[in-house]
Amino acid sequence: MPTLPEIQKNFFAGLFSRDRRIVSALLPSKTLTAQARFDIYRGSVSGLFTKVLAEIYPVCKRLLGDRFFDAMADRYIAVHPSISANVIHYGAQLPEFLEGFEPVSELPYLADTARLEWAWHRAFNARNSMPINTSELESFDENQLYCTAFKLTPGSSLLHSVYPVDIIWQQNQPEVEQPASITLETQDNYLLVRRSGFEVVIDKISHKYWSLLDSISSGLTLGQLSEQHDDMVVQAFLVEAIRHQWFSHFSTINRSSNHV
Amino acid sequence: MSGYCENSPSTSVIHGVGVGLRSQHYQHILTNKPSTPWLEALTDNYMADGGQPLDYLEQIRNHYPVTFHGVGMSLGSPGPLDRNYLQRLKERMRQFEPAWVSDHLSWSAYHRHNSNELLPLPYTEEGISHMARKITEAQDFLGERLLVENVSCYVEFRDSQMSEWEFVNGIADEADCHILLDINNIYVNACNNSTQADDFVQGVNPERIREIHLAGYEDRHTHLLDTHGEAIHQPVWDLYRQAIERLGPVPTLIEWDTNIPEYGTLQKQALVAEDIISASSRAHAHAA
After folding, report:
1. ipTM value for the complex
2. Closest among B236, B248, B251, B254 to B279, alpha carbons compared
3. Domain span holding position B131
4. Which of A171, A215, A251, B181 has the greatest number of beta carbons closer than 10 A?
């Protein structure tokens, strides 16, 4: 009689590989062989993860069509098993997977479209936050401002693509029955995906602002930004960033200590 | 039974027939405040760091008592319990004060990997000890007695040594936990495994049962599939009637997870269940 750990090991192996040792531990029913009964679980697991991917990547699904998407999902599931108790975390590696997935090589924009959809999913589930209180900031003298670092709204992502993925995304929302044709001229697109209240927002921004936000998200202070960019540019950027509520937090770096 | 809180103080407010809370109905519930006595939230849908679903649940919680029902504890897995999952669950329990928390008599994870599916265990003494130990650990962490649900099971293990209801009773006794009795799962398993559904209903320990689930299955001809995507079928209603006659007016939940209809359809299903509870209560009163 196999032990419980042996049964569980074989059961799990049977779900995700061609290993069929578990079948010998199972009984047939009046209508199904032991193998066919076990296959109900294989089908259920595959169906669950395909559904999870379809919910996170509806635009990719629309671009690929249902059958192609499901077949692609099967391949993804086989190489990227879930490692979380909650399926909310499943599917993060799909963009990279699509980059190397030969059957979609004729859709070079697909991986970046998937990146945008994952960024949307991440922002949707991110911690709630409030825009920063600017009155305190306004009271800062030049030296304090120089030492101030900002944090982007939780769940924000900075994306860059040579394809117009924001337009591809917009044109493939459920309410758009007939997407307009999109010219795939390659030019740099810089996007910020973020939460505003409970709404997920996709901002198309300039390369300059994208670079500044990238520096800010790596922890640079306004003073450090000013060393790399023109003061006027940094000031104009700050006004815009506050107006668009891109930040949720700021702190002044006082030499070795860090306080709000 | 010492050591755990007897669930939250709001336990007593859970009575009658509740409905499983689904995102499709958030707006309807908040706008119309239907007379549903309680709602059951799928815990795993509210484990994110933030976002709108949590806000909806908070608004709904202001008007309705809620219970928590999850699929992520993986109480029968070979490895350790997922402490991050339990910690987040504990935070949500503090935030929403559910009357009780339930999960399944199943396993999902094998070491690092997770099937996120409710997988069965053979009905053995080893299985009872294994699952009871994990339930005890989860209860100790959460500081509360759990409800554990009998699952739909599509395979039978050659080495099972007892009936499913003996397995469920054994775990509940050893872990000192409550039972969430899923009538649809009992019926699905009885059909798929050629066992007697009545035996389960008559054999399960009534002292441990705190909640009943009702849902619809899908007939795949070679087997029944527990999809929660149709109205409750007549044989399940018949089995429910038997259960209520034996167990009394146990709080009952209508579950619907695929092809989710308008809220009114769920309310109609709840009314059928309420009628069964009322008829049973009247019959008992008359007999007394």
Report:
1. 0.94
2. B248
3. 9-287
4. B181
